[in-house]
Each structure stands twice: as C-alpha cells, then as structure tokens.
Task: structure prediction
Amino acid sequence: MLALFIAALSNAIRAGAAGAIKAALLDPIDAQHSGEMIGTVLGSSFLGFALSLLAISPLLDRFGAKRMVLFAAACFIVGPSLVLLAAETGTSVYLLLNVAMVVWGLGWGATEASINPVIASTYADDKTGKLNALHAWWPAGIVVGGLLSVLFLKVFNLGWEVLVGLTIVPGVLLAMWASRHSFPQTESAAAGVTFNEMIAEPFKRPSFWVFFVIMFLTASAELAPGAWV
Result:
C-alpha cells in the first residue's frame, strides 16, 4: 500500500510542479517550445512505467518481489534527485529532466509489477477485495499529492525544489520498510510454473490479446493526455 501511495503521490506532484519547472528550467532555454518540452518530459515517466512493467513482470519470479520493491524505492529517490540536479546542468537540463522522469517512471512500473502479485499470494482467499483495497491508495496518493502541490506552491509560496524534494522522503521510508520485511512467492512460483511456460501462456489464449489492445487504448487515452493537461 505504501509503495502504490508513493507512486501516486509522485505522479501528482510531478504534474503539480510541472508549471514551475517549466518556468524555471525550460523557459530560459526555449520559451517558444517550453510547453511542448514539459509535456515530453512528463510523458517520459510513462515510458519508464511501460518499460519497467514489460521487463519486470515476466522476471518477478526470478528476482523476487522484495528486490523489485527496493528497486522501486531507489527510483523514487534517484528520480526526483535528478530533477533537482537538472537546474545545475545548463543546456543539458532538458535531457536530464527526461532521464529523471524515465527513472521515476521505472519506480512506478516496478511498484505495479510487484505489489499486485504479492497481494494475490498473501490473500489467496480474498484477492478481489484486497486488490481493490490496495488500489484505493492510488487515488489517495493523487489527492494528497495535489493538495501538497497547492499548499506548497500557492499557499506557502515555496519553490518547486521543496515540493519535488519532499517525494524523496517516502522513497527512503519505503526502502527501509522493504529491507526489513520478507515477501511471499508469487502464485506462479509456488505452483512451480517455469519461465518458458509463463511466456507461452498468452499465445495460447486469444482473449489475452483482446484485453491487451483494450488496455493499450485505455492507457493511451487516459494517462498520457492527463499528464499533458
């Protein structure tokens, strides 16, 4: 729950701080195209998210959920740190911002790829209920992140650096928590399903590709345009 909350919180804060980051870092470089540039920067987090899901999901049994959650925590620390460092890089600021967002997105994807199987394994008799409860923390993180953005930037008139730096703290807490806990095997690992069998399974089920297309269109229509707006 903490991992998903942090992912949502970071997502909301990225969007909340986007205007201030654009004004401080991108307008001085190219004011005419800075709007397009910040949209691309925010979109880079979705690239990291997609790459992380694609790579980690089939390899989760091999590396274990604990390592993946620790990887996500590291990304939640490194991503915003790179954003903060971008202000000192001069003409390379745009490149570093994109790299930072990809890293941040990798943490988001690693979170989604690892915690869902963990919840399903831990609560085998109540998967639906527990997964629904888990994902209630996503809108909670969005709401808290949005409120913090307004509070820090509009009410207290603090710099965007403070808001972005704030997201490092829960990343550290997640790393500390994950390092002290053990994680169960996924259901596929417990059942002895091999990597090759798992990879072959989607090709045996045409419905998988139907849902793949549906989710591809849904995510494309919902997530990326929302970040641009």
